[in-house]
Design brief:
The protein is mainly beta. Helices cover about 15% and strands about 35% of the residues. It is built from 4 helices and 14 strands. It comes from Chryseobacterium taihuense.
Length: about 200
């Protein structure tokens, strides 16, 4: 199972980190060992600045290569929410040296995956999702603000990577990312339904 992640897919998030607006999807990967087991996230010892990034996640249900945008919708049936935990201090250091981000993005437990739901129950072009930290809303996103829609992402990614059943695509985070601290509680909502909650340790 691959975890394919899209960076800078919401312009306001790109701006808040001082990044350029991309002309094509920015791709990075997480290993399957990044998936968090259970509901407790332990801040790794190598970072003092781990950030939450809430994202809509797509689960691939039909594999393919060179998928066309017009048929991309046939390759997934379920969506959910996930958190892309990022060691921001480590990422900034790596980026400043022109090095890959994987150490800051792919560490154990850095990919939180909540419950999945049938996509047919939602308007994927106008989907609200939000993250609460200690009961205070810190991220509030809508898929209409994506620069690259889900079907565009699938078509683009499949030019380079063969997609297989069970692969996950994290589609990018809106603005409002921030640091987590010990004893924080994170809760994610897809529309009005809670899909995950995480305790920070």
């Amino acid at each position: 199972m691959k975890i394919i992640c899209i960076g800078r897919n919401y312009s306001e998030h790109a701006k808040e980190l001082g990044n350029a607006i991309p002309e094509k999807p920015v791709i990075f990967m997480k290993p399957d060992t990044a998936v968090l087991k259970g509901n407790d996230f332990y801040i790794p010892e190598f970072s003092d600045d781990v950030h939450y990034e809430l994202e809509v996640v797509v689960k691939i249900s039909k594999g393919g290569k060179y998928i066309q945008k017009e048929t991309a919708h046939k390759h997934y049936e379920e969506i959910g929410l996930g958190i892309d935990f990022t060691a921001r201090d480590l990422q900034s250091d790596l980026k400043s040296k022109g090095l890959p981000w994987e150490l800051a993005k792919g560490f154990d437990g850095s990919a939180v995956v909540g419950n999945f739901f049938k996509k047919d129950n939602y308007d994927l072009q106008n989907l609200n999702f939000s993250l609460l930290k200690n009961k205070e809303k810190v991220q509030n996103g809508n898929t209409k603000n994506m620069m690259f829609a889900i079907d565009d992402i699938i078509a683009f990614v499949s030019q380079y990577f063969t997609l297989r059943v069970g692969d996950l695509i994290f589609t990018g985070t809106p603005e409002g990312v921030g640091k987590v601290s010990e004893n924080d509680i994170l809760e994610a909502y897809l529309e009005d339904e809670k899909t995950l909650d995480i305790r920070i340790l």
